[in-house]
Amino acid sequence: MAITIGSDPEFLVTLRDTNDVLGAREFLSYGGEIGCDGHATTGELRPPCAETPIAHTDIISRSLAGLEHKLRHHLRERGLSRENYTIIGGSGFNTNPVGGHIHFGMESSSDFVRALDCYLALPIMFLEDVERSSYRRRRGGAYGKLGAYERKRYGFEYRPLPSWLTARRFTAASLCIAHMIADAAYKDVLPPPIDFPSDSFYACDKGALYPFLDRVYAGWRSMPRWAEYSTYISVIPQEIKLKRDWKENWDLIRRWDLPTSDDDLLRMWQDNVNSRRVKDTGCGPVADAEVPEQDFPVDEVVYNPSEDDLLYNGNDTGCREIARIVFRRLGTNADVYIYGLNANREVSIAYYSGALPENVRQNYTYTRRAFGAALNHTRAIGFSPVMRSEPGRCAQIAIDYIEMNGWG
Asked: For residues 95 and 115, is the Cβ–Cβ distance under 8 A?
């Protein structure tokens, strides 16, 4: 079985001289592959998952190209220099902690999560800035705590890690360890847990935890995928031996070997967006979806979760943002229909009038004509009105399309 791996790593943009944070909300939307997290200052990548950690690293690289392109555009419009700003990962700082959640396309278990604590979170801690790491774990609530995870429809999300975006090599190493542990869990050959003191972990007391590293390395070598991933993983023991951290205050973009020109950055990011018309930000299946050609009354829609695609969710708050972007592009004469299934699997259509952009009407029993109008309007503005998405998620592929074409 191919175990998919995904992620949603966070980042901050700071002013180089003062460390003041440029709020991600100032230049990113809440939806999309590159967007805001729940905190207005924190940005987040939501790259599609992959079947290997290196493939997922490559996807993240293209997402970072999109982030750099967006930031340059925002600063240039305001007469500001990119050289005065830094994009950082790691633990964040002050009241702005960041993390690097990893998504697994398989079921969780207590042994699996404990192995991630012992063989992933523990060695990664040795790369972190001591002060920032201990603050993140003290103030981050459940995030940053050992054993923190959440079940998802695709599997589960592991939450204790800092944002390993600090450099490509650290990203690849972190994802390779994670995938290696997942493979061992699936094959039921996990190494034994390591009983290290959690208080020392939360305090980022590297001296107290150093004696446990030999057991970490022995556990790595016992896992079936070690030979395949060891070249990527070896950077972590090398840096630990040299007593070097991963330089959280350095601009991570400079450490990913990205293109330097705006056009090349845009093309690199477009490779991500264009590689799929439909995407899932977790680890679920990704597939193209066909636009239904026929008009039909809503009460004839039958949803089969094993065969059918979900439509855009008209209840999502992100729909209002999409509508506003379309109005800016097409003018106030436009009408926008964004439609989909609500939480009860009923069809809903959110209707936005260009004359009254704040006005939203939703109705679960639209006529055949109105439903056909929704298809025609979404086709007219250039993106497919059908995607795989869970109820409660905004139409992220639409945001990607709109921003990539310069509408936002």
From this structure: no
**What is the C-alpha separation between 126 and 232, in angstroms, rounded?**
17
The pLDDT tens digits of the residues spanning 188-236 come to 999 999 999 999 999 889 999 999 999 999 999 999 999 999 999 999 9
Model confidence pTM above 0.85: no
Q: What CA–CA distance (Å, rounded) separates 313 from 32? A: 15
Q: What is the DSSP letter of 3?
A: -
Residue whose C-alpha is closest to residue 111's, from 177, 188, 42: 188
3-state secondary structure of 312: coil
| Of the candidates 244, 239, 220, the residue with the CA atom closest to the CA atom of residue 230 | 220
> Which residue type is seen at 364?
Y
How many Å is the Cα radius of gyration of the chain?
22
Dist CA 396 CA 315 (whole Å)? 14
Q: Is 314 helix (H, G, I), strand (E, B) or coil?
A: coil
Residue 324 exposed, middle or buried by CB count within 10 Å (0-12, 13-18, 19+):
middle
Element (H, E) at 152: strand 149-152
What's the distance, CA 398 to chain centroid? 16
Tell me how far CA of residue 331 lies from CA of 203, 327, 377, 408, in angstroms.
55, 5, 14, 13
How far, rounded to the nearest angstrom, does the alpha carbon of residue 209 sit from its chain's CA centroid?
Answer: 30
96-125 pLDDT, tens digit each: 888 999 999 999 999 999 999 999 999 999
Instruction: Name 335's Cβ contacts closer than 8 Å, sequence gap at least 6.
Output: 351, 352, 353, 354, 377
350 forms beta bridges with 338, 362
Q: For the chain, what's the residue count? A: 408
**Which residues share a beta bridge with 339?**
349
Q: Are 235 and 122 in contact (CB under 8 A)?
A: no
